[in-house]
Amino acid sequence: MADDIKALLKNLKFSEEESVRVISSNIVTNYQGFEAWAVGKITAIEKPNREAMYRVLRSLWFTKYDVNFVALNEEVILVKFGCVEDRNRILNMMPWLFDNCLFAMLPFVKDKELETYEFNISPFRLRIYNIPLEYMDRQIAMDVGKAIGELVAIDWKDRNGGWTEFMRLKVKINVSNPLRRVVRLLGRNGVEMVCAIKYERLPAFCY
């Protein structure tokens, strides 16, 4: 539908009245608004109760300013944060779940087509077990993270105050693919170690 409209507008000849342009008197304010927006998509088999989802997310986020939700179509939702700080903090705290389903969000990009947003790429926190203490360093963390997906962050502490039981990472992964269960790590002595991956706050649809 959108492509058909674009094709029609491309060949459209404007009348005298239609040639008059409307100039926005609120350009600066609107542009700043765009910077604080995000687009989201709930990944669920059954259509969720959107109003209930909006209430739950608002109660979880504790934003400085009010958040407004606008349904752009049956799947995609525009999330209007009151400031960039609120938006960035909420995006950094992803993933967010509603009714055990992933609500994937991405920064709003001006003039970007909705179909080009990659909602299947989402960050998750995960734990890597069975790595010997002598191998728990920054380089190994980076190598393991990149092997799983796109490394976002390294958490230097587990529940005991340091890396003792597991290595904790935040990695962007493609949730359309089967989740990786292990990482095969080749030690300095040439011995292979099979390291188990445990995902935190995993949505119901991931497998």
Automatic annotation (TrEMBL):
InterPro entries: At4g02000-like, DUF4283. Residues 39-110 form the DUF4283 domain. Coiled coil: none annotated. Signal peptide: none annotated. This is DUF4283 domain-containing protein.
